[in-house]
Amino acid sequence: MITRRQFNATASAALLVPSAVITGPARAAAWPTRPVRIIVPFAAGGPTDVIARMVGEQLSKDWGQQVLIENRPGGGTNIANEVVAHAEPDGHTILMGGQSQATTRALYRSLTYDPITDFAPVAFICGYSFFMFVPNSLPVKSVREFVAYGKANPGKLALASPGTGSSPHLCGELFKHMAGIDMLHVPYRGAAPAMNDLIPGRVHLLFSGGATLDNARSGQVQVLGYTGAKRAAIAPEVPTIAEDGVPGFNVISWYGFFVPAKTPHEIIVKMNADTIAALVNPNVQGRLLPLGYESSPDSPEQVGAFLKRETELWTRVIKEAGIAPLG
User: Fold this and answer.
1) pLDDT value at position 141?
2) CA pair distance 65, 33, nearest whole angstrom
3) Structural domains for the chain
4) Exposure string (b/e) for 9-38, b if CB count within 10 Å is 16 or more?
5) Backbone CA torsion sign across 212, 215, 220, 225
6) What is the model's pTM?
7) pLDDT at 163 over 60
8) Residue 269 CB: number of other CB atoms within 10 A?
9) CB of 236 within 8 A of CB of 109?
10) Is the pLDDT of residue 134 over 70?
């Protein structure tokens, strides 16, 4: 005969089974239950911030919850990364990550988080490649001529960048290696001051995004090439570096959403689907494409595999370039 205590214990256990089965889907269906923070590692007004606000605005409409953009600049993105790495893993804190996710481990001696294992990839936001800018005073008109000039004048050319370890800097280091030329790296505090010194020829090469094309179109500098695998839709007249002197050269910079590693998978899957839907919205596409940004409907697993490849590439570049740890 079953006692009342045995019956109650059996009934309680039985009730737990369907509850466990529906916990995941129910949790995803209910999420988000409050405002969602997107942590941006850079100051307001920059391209990363602009894209985060663009996507966040659409997601806010889709989720029925306010999406707050929180700027946490400084520390080579480490400040923002730490905030998200140690946040509650409930899907309400998102990192607007980028190439630094693939380079931080090789660039810094000590970190309070692991840029790979402490995050879960969610979605690829967009990617873009760089244009290769040189001063008008440099006697070259193509990538091929620039490489030849650099080989004929070893150590006399200066590569400008918006900062040591930045995407344009590492792009330049890979270019130096693949082209077989020696250049001095000159870091600046941002792309604008680097361009200001490129125009009069105080430095000789700068890799920068599509927004800088205005400097070339106004005649202030020359644009010789594009770092992507194919020509850019916003400047189809500019050849790729690979087709004009450095075969196989292909560099992109990118943005993606990441969350704390223990965030429930079902929430990540929903966040991924909703982000992809937001990115293909005509209003968002109409603002991304003119800037040279291209989105891709990748799964979280595809983003993770891409990050692994990027980490291997840039770790190798950093070591071969002999870039000293930043902290």
Assistant:
1) 97
2) 8
3) 36-128+252-321 (3.40.190.150), 131-226 (3.40.190.10)
4) eeeeeeeeeeeeeeeeeebbeebbeeebbb
5) positive
6) 0.84
7) yes
8) 15
9) no
10) yes
